[in-house]
Amino acid sequence: MQQSQMIVNRAERLLECTWRPEWAAQAREAAAEFLLDLRSPPPAAIVQILLLLVSELVTNGLRHGGGVSAMSLRADRRSIQVIVADPSPAHPQDRTPDLTGHTGGFGWPMLQRLADSVRVEPQPGWSKAITAILAR
User: Fold this and answer.
1) Pairwise pLDDT comparison (34 vs 103), residue with the higher score
2) Which of 121, 37, 20, 130 is nearest to 84 (CA)?
3) CATH architecture assigned to 3-135
4) What residue ranges do the domains of the chain occupy?
């Protein structure tokens, strides 16, 4: 997996990186490395939540969205954002979780509970991008 972009704005303490992961493990590894580059690392609990959000967003993009067009991470003094774009125009849907483990249904509600904010936005050339925001 190749990092395609890195933006650093020291005045605003903004760091942004973009990748195109092919599986969730790559995305988690990229996110962990991104967090190591932050001037002020977030608390361990935020790190764990962020890695879970990254994993779920990428897995959902791969499983339901036809792949991952891009994954971006942005951090500033106040928050960390995870943005995952996929080619599907379909928005995630709440559904009854399958307790047998066959069809899932746990990821989207979990994302909504763990993140401070989640939004789905149409994207030109991407179809949609899902952004999850965590306060630092």
Assistant:
1) 34
2) 130
3) 2-Layer Sandwich (3.30)
4) 3-135
